[in-house]
Design brief:
The chain is of the alpha/beta class. The chain contains 9 helices and 7 strands. It has one domain: NAD(P)-binding Rossmann-like Domain (Rossmann fold, 3-Layer(aba) Sandwich), CATH 3.40.50.720. β4, α4 and β5 form a beta-alpha-beta unit. The N terminus is likely disordered. The protein binds nicotinamide-adenine-dinucleotide (NAD). Nicotinamide-adenine-dinucleotide binds next to α1 and α7.
Length: 278
């Protein structure tokens, strides 16, 4: 539990200092974060809200959304929430359209939706259905969200899009299989192409690539798919000697969403404590 009473549900120690400080980089801006009622996405949403953004969080889990909104309220913040299935093209298009009618066009889009969906680690065990579901959640969800917010960003000549890749897509994964690694690699390519196409409209598109972050989902994969000895060895091989924390990701997303990153686009940001360097 942090000093602000926010429990992000991860294993590592939370920082005592509130990283949002008194900085209000997002006053007057509206942000949409997909599949963000828990874990990394929730930490990013709270960070953007703490820095003054009007924040809307979508997720398919209505109870988790209610918990997220209550958590934010305890910290003196507001999260607008909406049930939305990021793996469903129609739901994504209609919900985002409705949200923009209610809240105005989004200035910031964080395509957080993703994960390996506990699909098999070994390539030969991955069926087409596994591939399809992982591609839909991780990449098509971002395509559909971008399609919904880009016209508003283009019309106003401003926008920040942050996509979620992963260390898996850059250097391989120790807990997820080929489908997840491949689609996370594709997120970096999608990012570069959108950056190329939309730069002239004042829109930046960047991709963040965290190493393992001990959210509830990854914590169980980490213990199921790696032995205690392997887990200790991997940790020891990370130069910074710890795993990524949700606040690390939130700080980087906030940076890429801010004017401080106005001249950065098409970039892939590794966030892995030096575990893999390029
Ligand atoms: N956790 C990690 O180690 C890690 C590392 C690198 C990248 N990432 C990426 O970061 C992002 C967030 O990961 P996380 O571990 O916080 O996620 P998570 O598994 O904790 O899930 C976050 C939320 O996604 C929601 N969700 C799942 N499927 C959905 C759907 N179809 N529609 C709407 N909501 C849905 C869940 O209800 C949950 O609230 C993902 O893109 C993931 O691939 C995670």
């Amino acid at each position: 539990m942090s000093s602000k009473g926010i429990d992000f549900g991860h294993a590592g120690p939370l920082r005592e200092a509130d990283p949002a400080r008194n900085c209000k980089r997002f006053s007057g801006r509206a942000a949409l974060l997909t599949a963000a009622a828990r874990g990394i996405g929730l930490a990013c949403a709270l960070r953007l809200a703490a820095e003054g953004a009007t924040v809307c969080v979508t997720d398919r889990d209505e109870d988790a959304l209610a918990e997220a909104a209550a958590l934010a309220q305890q910290a003196g913040l507001t999260l607008h929430t909406s049930v939305m299935d990021s793996s469903d093209v129609l739901d994504t298009a209609t919900r985002i359209e409705t949200l923009q009618q209610l809240l105005g066009p989004f200035d910031i889009l964080v395509n957080n939706a993703g994960g390996s969906l506990h699909t098999p680690y070994h390539f030969m065990d991955e069926t087409d259905a596994h591939w399809q579901s992982v591609i839909e959640l991780n990449m098509l969800s971002a395509v559909w969200s971008c399609r919904a917010v880009l016209p508003g960003m283009v019309a106003r000549g401003v926008g920040r899009i942050v996509n979620f890749g992963s260390k898996a897509g850059r250097f391989g994964s120790l807990i997820a299989g080929a489908n997840y690694a491949a689609v996370k690699g594709a997120m970096a390519s999608l990012t570069r192409q959108l950056a190329l196409e939309y730069g002239a409209y004042g829109i930046t598109v960047n991709c963040i690539c965290p190493g393992i972050v001990m959210t509830a989902r990854t914590r169980s994969l980490w213990s199921e798919r790696r032995t205690p000895a392997e887990r200790a060895r991997v940790l020891d091989e990370i130069p910074l000697k710890r795993h990524c924390e949700v606040e690390d990701v939130a700080a980087s997303v906030a940076f890429l969403a801010s004017d401080d990153a106005a001249f950065i686009t098409g970039a892939t940001l590794d966030l892995n404590g030096g575990q893999a360097m390029a």
